[in-house]
Request: fold
Amino acid sequence: MANRYNNILETIGGTPVVKLGKLAPEGVNLYAKIEAFNPMGSVKDRLALGIIEAAEKSGDLKPGQTVIEATSGNTGIGLAMVCAQKGYPLVVTMAASFSIERRKMMRFLGAKVIITPAPKKGSGMLAKAVELADKHGWFLCRQFENEANADFHSRTTAREILDDFADEKLDYWVTGYGTGGTLKGVSRVLKKESPDTKVVVCEPANAALLASGTEQESDAQGNPVSHPAFQPHPMQGWTPDFISKLTADSVDSGLIDQKLTVAGDDAMRCSKALAQQEGIFVGISAGGTLAAALEVAKNAPKGSNILCMLPDTGERYLSTPLFGDVSVDMNEAELEISHSTPNFHFEG
Reply:
């Protein structure tokens, strides 16, 4: 394994698969692919590099041209890294409902962040990005429909998974969806090269767009409108208020074997369990994926191998309800420890 790289972008991908020794039910092997090992801490680093490199190759992105995209945060953070390294100005649009850590990280990396009204949801921030791109002649990434997104996952994420399970059968692959790039890019490779692997897709219980069976509609310009089955949920990066084209492609192509829904409280519970029982620090969407994988494990045959995707790091969620019960001050147990010796008490 190389230890020296020409630039930070060469470190994207190659994330580890880790066995969960405490959370898995007896008789089932539960693994997690931890995308927080990407340089900016999420799976979206992959699509950011894939889309920019494809646009450079095609000539759609010109030297020095401004890049723009609508994002819940992780894609914008990945793009900010890629654009900083390659020298492109970046503008992102993001709904006000997403965590402030994400805004600060993108701005720290040199991007400009345009906040859109929370009630307009994901479709609103996307419409704003389209409007700005048309007005100023900027390159719009179109992560929700850009085939370069899925293609990069087919070339990297899928190959890594197949390599990691080259010597044993992978029975289930569990993932959420946002752009649908991971879902489409990985599942089509698995269906071809590991056809016995069942693809399980999870979505919020209160925003089960795929499970609703209601097709996605678009406006006169072809942009997706807010799906009637959507309600706000805590799994940032999962399930925007529309079904992306890449996700719809996966459904239409028959790549999905099972759909599961996850409650927000279960997602946060599993995120905390990963941290406190496995030492794996991830966000709410990762907790949601684990919750779905645990449901799969309940009915999986003995000896099954289950792999779930953990999309990002928990540091994206410090201002969210995930950390709502984590105090900055000492609790009673901590005060008791402090008072167990006579000196150096801090009561403030």
